[in-house]
């Protein structure tokens, strides 16, 4: 996952004042115009930009430039508050609750417990801790540092364990004066119903394709439509995959590479991304076998003559690989094993599809986009 600074992936352009991603501008205007509740649940497909939306909303609410000078309601991007409400600063009236893994990946400061980040060498947590929620509760008792609102952003909200979410309930129901919550999530069904019921829900629309393509092209991504399709329509995911080395050329070649059993070009990708890509290829090969246009890959590259039972077995084996393994014992061998498994499935051989193990889980927080 790429570093994200100031609401936009590292190296990518920010197309509007305040760092607002272009396809989020319209829903932001609407939210700023209509939202009066103290707790907002921003939902949408993975990669629609929930975190970026939540931060842009928080910055707009905290902005100290007169609203008469901000007709669109967005943050001005140059006042003291806007300067502080960025990834590498600490705004006294903004708390951002992220899993440790995302704090590191997004480059966001963790006010109050920065020491945790360096504790030992254990793998960064992919969950929001109850300690972080308790700190947010404590934050709610403080007086506003700059005399305006206080905002708590929580993302991904479904990564709060039940105990942490339960600790937050009272505050969501009876917030202290001048406090607002913005919860971003990609899977609202995974949230406690009691959390959902205390928030006003806002669903982000799918990113406008033309805006997303232009944004990716400005970021130096070639063949942006191919990569947007590879990410199921999520431009942030497309950008991050591109940054990891999965460009449009490699994506278009991937079905042929798997069919040929050539794992080498994929061996430099993270294992979770290889598994995710193979799952998409399996999905598209199933569609093609049924005479339906593929969703993720250019149609010309997807074999249409694979046997459905073999593809179903392959899909199950990939799910097992994603679910049961964590640390690859040898990334190169792991990727080779996964690709050979795919080759057998696409060729329709009768050999059983063995489970390739030791891959990162597909629902890892790193695959949020
Ligand atoms: Zn401002």
Bound molecules: zinc ion
Low-confidence spans: pLDDT under 50, at least 5 residues? 1-11, 358-364
Report mean pLDDT, rounded to a whole number.
Answer: 84
Residues in helix, %: 40-55%
The chain-level structural class is alpha/beta
User: Which fold does the CATH topology of the largest domain refer to?
Assistant: Rossmann fold
Order of helices and strands: EEHEHHEHHEHEHEHHHHHHH
CA gyration radius, whole angstroms: 22 Å
CATH H-tier superfamily of the largest domain: P-loop containing nucleotide triphosphate hydrolases
Query: What is the domain total for the residues?
Result: 2
Number of strands: 7
Gross CATH architecture of the largest domain:
3-Layer(aba) Sandwich
Strand content: 5-15%
CATH class identity of the largest domain: Alpha Beta
| Largest beta-sheet characterization | 5 strands, parallel
Q: What is the straight-line distance between the termini? A: 9 Å
How many H/I helices?
14
Shape: elongated
């Amino acid at each position: 996952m790429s570093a994200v600074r100031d609401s936009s992936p590292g190296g990518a352009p920010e197309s509007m004042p305040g760092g607002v991603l272009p396809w989020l501008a319209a829903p932001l205007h609407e939210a700023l115009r209509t939202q009066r509740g103290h707790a907002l649940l921003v939902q949408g497909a993975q990669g629609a930009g929930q975190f970026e939306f939540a931060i842009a909303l928080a910055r707009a609410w905290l902005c100290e430039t007169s609203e008469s000078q901000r007709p669109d309601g967005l943050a001005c991007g140059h006042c003291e508050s806007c300067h502080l409400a960025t990834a590498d600063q600490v705004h006294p009236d903004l708390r951002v609750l992220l899993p440790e893994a995302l704090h590191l990946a997004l480059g966001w400061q963790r006010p109050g417990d920065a020491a945790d980040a360096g504790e030992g060498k254990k793998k960064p947590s992919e969950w929001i801790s109850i300690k972080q929620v308790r700190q947010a509760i404590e934050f709610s008792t403080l007086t506003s540092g700059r005399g305006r609102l206080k905002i708590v952003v929580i993302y991904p909200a479904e990564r709060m364990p039940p105990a942490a979410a339960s600790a937050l309930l009272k505050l969501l129901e009876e917030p202290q004066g001048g406090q607002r919550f913005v919860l971003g999530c990609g899977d609202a069904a995974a949230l406690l119903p009691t959390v959902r019921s205390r928030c006003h829900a806002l669903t982000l629309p799918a990113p406008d394709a033309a805006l997303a393509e232009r944004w990716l092209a400005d970021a130096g991504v070639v063949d942006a439509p191919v990569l947007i399709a590879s990410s199921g329509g999520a431009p942030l995911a497309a950008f991050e995959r591109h940054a990891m080395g999965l460009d449009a050329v490699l994506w278009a070649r991937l079905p042929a590479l798997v069919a040929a059993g050539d794992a080498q070009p994929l061996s430099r990708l993270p294992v979770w991304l290889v598994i995710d890509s193979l799952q998409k290829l399996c999905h598209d090969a199933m569609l093609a076998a049924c005479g339906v246009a593929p969703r993720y890959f250019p149609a010309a590259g997807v074999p249409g003559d694979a046997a459905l039972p073999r593809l179903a077995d392959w899909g199950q084996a990939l799910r097992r690989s994603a679910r049961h393994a964590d640390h690859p014992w040898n990334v190169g061998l792991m990727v080779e094993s996964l690709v050979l498994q795919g080759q057998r499935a696409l060729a329709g051989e009768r050999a059983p599809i063995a489970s390739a193990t030791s891959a990162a889980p597909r629902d890892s927080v790193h695959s949020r986009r």
